[in-house]
User: Which sequence fits this backbone?
């Protein structure tokens, strides 16, 4: 395969800087990785934006998504000749029609709903953010408290429509592309059983469960995440 670039897509209640540690770790082994913006408005439009970023890159791409970034990379990869593989980092890997909220509810354990606060947008939808006082424990329990508070203060809200929008298309991209999964055993946003279920369903090439890691696994344990991305990168190169 010719040049391969890692493209990282953040999820809800996060932003591109959440990938800083992973990018630095990959750079140490000369792997080019970039974080592309995710507008968090709808799966369809967010995927279109990511697809445009992918199409602008020379060579092939390994798409990596965190949380809600999972549906976005799944939709963005559909039918693309440039996407070589998918890595799901504490992320949703939906079938067509499945929603992020629906997958969260498949198994008990998520406490996210109790911490989310709405901002009405005036069109019948809301922006949602995690209560900043509760963010460290809910989202980043294994991240240094100072850093977790900063992450809570800089989080990007997601439109509720996006979390309720089913994956567009007829076939999920992970059915035809190789995939890898990594998540923490202490994820309070997405139940661990849901992660295991989605990884097994997708035929994950390798699944890494980081003991004690939170939903912010890429922040708290960037090397574990980078190692799996590196393994996927090597398999595709």
Assistant:
């Amino acid at each position: 395969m010719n040049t391969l670039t890692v493209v990282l897509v953040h999820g809800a209640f996060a932003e591109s800087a959440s990938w800083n540690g992973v990018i630095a770790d990959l750079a140490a082994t000369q792997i080019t990785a970039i974080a592309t913006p995710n507008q968090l408005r709808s799966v369809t439009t967010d995927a279109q934006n990511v697809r445009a970023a992918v199409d602008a890159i020379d060579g092939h791409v390994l798409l990596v998504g965190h949380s809600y970034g999972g549906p976005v990379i799944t939709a963005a990869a559909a039918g693309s000749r440039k996407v070589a593989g998918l890595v799901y980092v504490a992320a949703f890997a939906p079938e067509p029609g499945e929603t992020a909220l629906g997958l969260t509810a498949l198994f008990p354990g998520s406490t996210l709903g109790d911490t989310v606060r709405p901002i009405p947008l005036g069109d019948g939808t809301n922006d949602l953010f995690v209560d900043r006082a509760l963010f460290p424990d809910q989202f980043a329990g294994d991240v240094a408290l100072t850093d977790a508070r900063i992450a809570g203060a800089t989080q990007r809200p997601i439109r509720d429509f996006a979390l309720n929008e089913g994956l567009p298309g007829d076939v999920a991209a992970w059915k035809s592309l190789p995939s890898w999964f990594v998540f923490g055993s202490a994820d309070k946003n997405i139940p661990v059983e849901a992660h295991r279920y989605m990884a097994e369903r997708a035929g994950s090439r390798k699944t890494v469960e980081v003991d004690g890691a939170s939903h912010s696994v890429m922040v708290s344990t960037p090397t574990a995440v980078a190692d799996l991305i590196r393994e996927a990168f090597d398999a595709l190169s």
User: Anything to note?
Assistant: The mean pLDDT is 97. The chain has one domain: 4-236.
